Amino acid sequence: MSAQAPSAVILIRAERFHPNPATAADNAFQSDIPSGQSDRATATRALAEMDALADALRAAGVTVHVFADEDHTRPDSVFPNNWLSTHAGGYVAVYPMYASNRRHERRADVLEMLKSDYRVQSIVDYSGLEPDGIFLEGTGAMVLDHVSRVAYTARSHRADIAVLERFCTDFAYEPMAFDAVDSDGVPVYHTNVVACIGTDVAMIALEMIPDEERREQVRERLSVNGRTVVELTEEQVREFAGNAVELCGRTPEGRRYIMAMSARARRSLRPDQVAAIEESCEIVSVDIPTIELAGGSVRCMIAGVHLDRRPVADAEPTAAAEAIDENPGTIDGQDLVDTE
């Protein structure tokens, strides 16, 4: 298993998908449903896009755990990376969410599947910070370098620096916070729309970091171990080029790195940028225009599993995957650590 690129992922098949009105105010990437398109048509198109992503990842040799969600009150549940992350050594983090209607996206059945199928030592739950107005929306708010142990974080009200530092202490990362804004001076709502870190390549819109000294510090930290840094433009970021994720697939010849992104993101890249990425990764792209109306793309849809598999004989059968959550918003594992 690669430290940076997980070989298994979690996807949520949100059957009632639609862009979330509660997140539109600070998500400049969010768009309205096309005029005249019904909610049912939107949901149907989104389901087809989710299934296409799952199929493309499986075809690339990635293990895909799919959980169904029929709850119409969870419009953004297709983006599980905001409430969940997993880490080598058997650690899981659960995060505090900014929008109140996103907080019941957290699912006990997902955690139970992880504990059943993978080696989980402890779950650290930061969601108790929500009543205090303190938020850190997972690997949306942070882009993690699992190799050098750095948590790159664009400051926003979805990424509180105090809880970032607490996370970094608990999980042994170095915090690297910075401001990132668009050409209108609007802060970027999530770090993972401007940056993607792979094993040997990183994509980042350094031009959106206004502090020149901090910009160079980020560049140097990303490249210190020989990683190639592909600089994105703000225009490419608006096409979701930064919202990609490196995964570890498998072919008959062995393991390989893939870079998963949307077809829209892939089309925005210049030939030289594609060549730099393909030095270490095969690009796997899927067209997801309906999902992208919600202001997130392929990276947001994927919660990577950085955990060791249990041996098949040890794993208990679970009905969680492909099932509907019957107890939304309840996180009740006995080994959960509350950090309120």
Automatic annotation (TrEMBL):
Tagged with keyword ATP-binding: no
Keywords carried by this UniProt record: Transferase
Pfam family membership, one: DDAH_eukar
Annotated stretches, region: Disordered: 316-340
GO molecular function: transferase activity
PANTHER family, sorted: AMIDINOTRANSFERASE
Protein name as annotated: Amidinotransferase
